[in-house]
Amino acid sequence: MTHARNLLTTGTILLLVALTACTSDDPDTRTEAAPPAETQPADEPTDLVDLQGPLEPGTYSLALWGQGYAGPLPRAILELPEGWFSSGGYFLHAGLDGVTDDQLGAISGWHPVQVLTDPCRRRTAADVGPTGNDLARALVDQTGPSTQPQPVVLDGHRGLTLDVTIPPDLDPNRCTRNQYSLWRTESRGDSALGQDTPGLVNRLWILDVDGTRIVLLASLYPDETEELHQEQTTIAESVHFEPAPPA
To answer: Does domain 48-242 have CATH number 3.40.1000?
Structure first.
């Protein structure tokens, strides 16, 4: 992870063909009735894994960080308007294109298992309890400013929401790998959320999704407009979760 706005990008381009409804007609309608039309389900979500580049408005399936360590995780199904981009399936970005330094905004999903007591020092990562309250409490206790957790329900799943802000006076060069990290998705290895933008607001929804603690994250960059901040929040709050795919 060397770039805060692209974060942990991965994958190659995967072209997916949209499903369309089809009908069947009998050429000789004088002697035999046409068979019933066959239809495909509307708004089938497009899998974002390995898909990189600009996205058409529609329904997309976002993979969550942490499934390599935790096993299969639920998928976040999101409705995207025009102007969004995929960077390999685990991050959604808004901005000018999916590649340049001018891109803005990010939405991602996570399964954190450790929280850094000092987000500038990777070695301070420590296991956190299994509940949403445990995770929220650990994040509030970090060095960066945060709001107090508030109850929330998304897609029928109860949880907590709060904002955690990277300190506006942060010097990323003084952090491990020049990155500010709220959490890790594994206790071995180095899979972590890494960011380097002072003043960035991480808007979190910590949810219990069928017994699995999931974090939906909207990263609100300080150079974005308030309209884009609201768009990110609206997209996240419209989430629908689908069960984990078979292992």
So the answer is: yes
